Amino acid sequence: MSDEKNRAVAEAILPLVGGAANIRSVAHCMTRLRLGLVDRSLVDREALAALPAVLGTVDDDTYQIVLGPAAVAGVTAQLLRLLDAAAAPAAAPTAEDLAGRGARIRAEAKARNATPLKRALRRIADIFVPLIPALIGCGIVAALSGALANLGWAPALVAALGAVSSGFMSLLAVFVGYNTAKEFGGTPVLGGAVASVIVYAGVAKVEAFGHHLTPGQGGVVGALLAALLAVQVERWTRRIVPAALDVLVTPTVTVLVGGLAALYGLMFVAGEVSTAIGHAAAWLLAHGGLLAGLVLGGLFLPLVMLGLHQALIPIHTTLIQQQGSTVLLPILAMAGAGQVGCAAAVYLRLRHNAPLRATIRSALPAGLLGVGEPLVYGVTLPLGRPFVTACVGGAAGGAFIGVAGQLGSAVGSTAIGPSGWALFPLLAGPHGLVASAAVYGGGLLTGYVVGFLATYFFGFTRELLAENDNPAPAPAPTAEPARDGGQVC
User: Fold this and answer.
1) Cα 270 from chain centroid (whole Å)
2) Residue 96 burial (CB < 10 Å; 0-12/13-18/19+)?
3) Distance of CA 21 to CAs 4, 25, 38, 48, 82, Å?
4) Residue among 426, 405, 398, 409 at smallest CA distance from 133
5) Which is it for the CA torsion 282, 285, 288, 291, positive or negative?
6) Mean pLDDT of residues grouped by 10 in the chain (489 residues)?
7) pLDDT for position 95
8) Which of 29, 138, 342, 391 is catalytic?
9) Helices 312-323 and 116-128, axial angle in degrees (round to 10)
10) Is the pTM of this model over 0.85?
11) Contact 435, 424 (CB under 8 A)
């Protein structure tokens, strides 16, 4: 999208979220513009959802506007320029203003009913989300390298592509440590320094628990734990060290304590945990592929709505670092396939609901590419029963991939983030890209067909049809507050 179009989208969004004065912070992830708002009651949700560039909205700890991976960075940059242009000296807030703002913030937090578990999972997800672009890029380069190697073409280029794709993965623990310290209030570079011990080749000379350590042992789990410990050590040290010595003592103590703890405890423990995760995933597909696929594909979107899907992000990352791909993501992606098939059935069943059919037409391409929010929160979830039948489609697609894995044709993804058709370039498996694509495509087709049939024949009661298939004009459905829709952000 050009700068002019990005600016036009930003100019359209700004007044609908209450104007520049209502925006406290601006950020973005892979697909969403994330706004910290002073007063969310000023947001015109219906008008915002009606903008062609807006795929949906999510009311979470920040107010999130789904724009898609191609547009979000450009729109964010233009919005920041508009805010800079609008900035002007303002009167200091009165006590009444501050009290009212605090009351609104408390009310919003209470309304969201955030539990400690959900907050912890969200913070862990925030550690890994910034890494997704690099994981995607390196994953696609690795797939290209593998394809050339299988064909026996350009061995020199294969070696170069292998270096490009593996460099980031070899230092993934360092980035996790950096982001962990940043997320939990420590000095980011100290978190990265402590985590770098895990990937240092010299740890092979260190003996712990009667065994020599292996470089990379513990992976991202060990890096996360080591950086968390470093944050606590840094805080404790700053409280007791005189300010004149802080610049020397605090970094030294943090790196020393965190590094030794990583070497003589965390690497071993985290290594056992990471190995157990890998064995569990392999066992799950080898012995319970049908059931595992059925449950994971069918329940993923309900997990997303509860915010519990974020616990899977470190597991995906651990599997990618340990085995080169995550076998769980292709199964979970089937949830989106069920939504696509369901939406097609809704389109045919509700022939007289022009606004809803228009929503489906605009949201279906995004759904095929794995951006599920518009279909979930604009179509299936508001209708109720079709959301359940869509999950049935996801379960069927997941079962297809699970059975293939049980029969020795497991398919994995070399990165997290993409879903739907966008996942094809990132597929990997024991029989090559073509076989993996065939299994994954079969799962998508199964999810589409079962989601469509389940919705067409069982997704509507007579009352639901009478209520929603009215020839009279009706307001277009809008995306209501929600969590996430399958895309890891």
Assistant:
1) 23
2) exposed
3) 23, 11, 8, 18, 12
4) 426
5) positive
6) 83 90 84 87 87 82 82 87 70 40 45 65 85 86 82 87 88 93 92 94 86 87 94 93 88 94 90 87 84 92 78 88 90 94 94 85 87 81 89 96 91 88 90 91 96 94 81 45 41
7) 35
8) 29
9) 40
10) no
11) no
Return all residues near 364 (Cβ < 8 A) that are at least 6 apart.
340, 343, 344, 375
Give the H/E segment covering residue 313: helix 312-323
Task: Select from 37, 94, 98 the least CA-distant residue to 65.
Answer: 37
Quote the CA–CA distance of 32 and 412 in Å, as a whole number.
26
Using alpha carbons only, what angle is made at residue 440 by residues 437 and 441, rounded to the nearest 5 degrees? 80
Q: Does the active-site annotation cover 29? A: yes
Here the tokens at position 316 are 């995906």
What pLDDT, on the 0 to 100 scale, is given for residue 297? 93
- Element (DSSP H or E) covering residue 183: helix 172-183
Q: How far apart are CA 58 and CA 422, in angstroms?
A: 22
Q: Which residues pair with 186 in a beta bridge?
A: none
Question: What strand order describes the sheet that includes 56-59?
Answer: 23-28, 32-37, 63-66, 56-59
DSSP 3-state of 324? coil
The DSSP output letter for 92 is P
Tokens 């802080």 — which residue?
Answer: 246
Report how far residue 400's alpha carbon sits from residue 395's, in angstroms, rounded to the nearest whole number: 9
* Residue 106: both structure tokens together: 């408390």
φ, ψ of residue 208 to 5 degrees: the values are -140, 135
Spatial contact of 226 and 255, defined as CB atoms under 8 Å apart: no
* Distance separating alpha carbons of residues 440 and 421, to the nearest angstrom: 9
Q: Six-digit token pair at 51?
A: 């903008």
- On whether the CB atoms of residues 348 and 40 are closer than 8 A, the answer is no
The domains found in the chain, sorted by start residue, are 3-113 (3.30.1360.60), 129-281 (no CATH), 302-468 (no CATH)
Residue 95: Cβ-neighbour burial (10 angstroms; 0-12, 13-18, 19+): exposed
| CA-based nearest residue to 80, from 19, 10, 1 | 10
Query: Running DSSP on this structure, what letter comes out for residue 326?
Result: B
pLDDT value at position 192? Answer: 95
Q: 395: closest CA among 301, 273, 277, 256?
A: 301
User: CA geometry: angle at 45 spanning 43 and 46, to 5°?
Assistant: 140
- pLDDT of res. 437: 93
pLDDT on residue 92: 43
β partners of residue 427: 413
